[in-house]
Each structure stands twice: as structure tokens, then as C-alpha cells.
Amino acid sequence: MSDFITVLRETCPTPVLDATKWKRIGGDPHTVNLNAYLSKDGSKIMGTWICTPGKFEVNYEKWEYCHFLDGYCIITPEGEAPKHLKAGDVFVIEPGMKGTWEVVETVRKYFVFA
Fold this sequence. Notes:
The chain is mainly beta. It has one domain (13-113): Sandwich (Jelly Rolls). 0% of the residues lie in helices and 58% in strands. The chain is built from no helices and nine strands. Strands 1, 2, 3, 4, 5, 6, 7, 8 and 9 form a nine-stranded antiparallel sheet that branches. The two termini are 24 Å apart.
């Protein structure tokens, strides 16, 4: 059996509620993580993230790939213009990004942290 390919078709992740480490700074946002994959060394994780409206202060220590399935949010890196993101958008956030993440309409996204 190979450890080089992990097929996620059969995964049934357990929902993890309000697990985000980000500081809430507006509204009453709540999150659900459906973590479908965690590398053996714990350095990579992927799954689905759902979040209700509210605002967080963020500080990225890892690289993140996101594919928005539903919702709308505004991510504002310190010293930069806000990025308006909606269903269908695919984007990457680099380590070191600090700023705010405001969920305007409930978001559901696929994510990969590496």
C-alpha cells in the first residue's frame, strides 16, 4: 500500500466547532472545521471551513490555499486595500499576512494549509 496518494472520497470528518485561533473583533462569528486530511508530521491540513458573519484579527504563520464555495468576505491586509472575495474565487494567502478577515455572508470554503 502506497503512502504517496491519499484519496479523500471516503472521509467522514468530524465537525470541530469554533476551533479558529483568530481573535474575534466584531460580531459573533462561529466556525465549523471539517478537517479531511492531516499530514503525518502535522504540518499540512486540508478540509472545509464554514463561518458565520463577523470579523477576526488574523496573523498568518502558514501558507493557505482557499476555494470559496459560498459566501462573501473582505480580507484587509495591514497597509493594503481590502480584497473582496466571493463564491467561486480561488486565492492564496502567504505567511506573514496580518490584518482582518470579515465574513459578510456565511462562508464555506475548501482550504489547504501548508
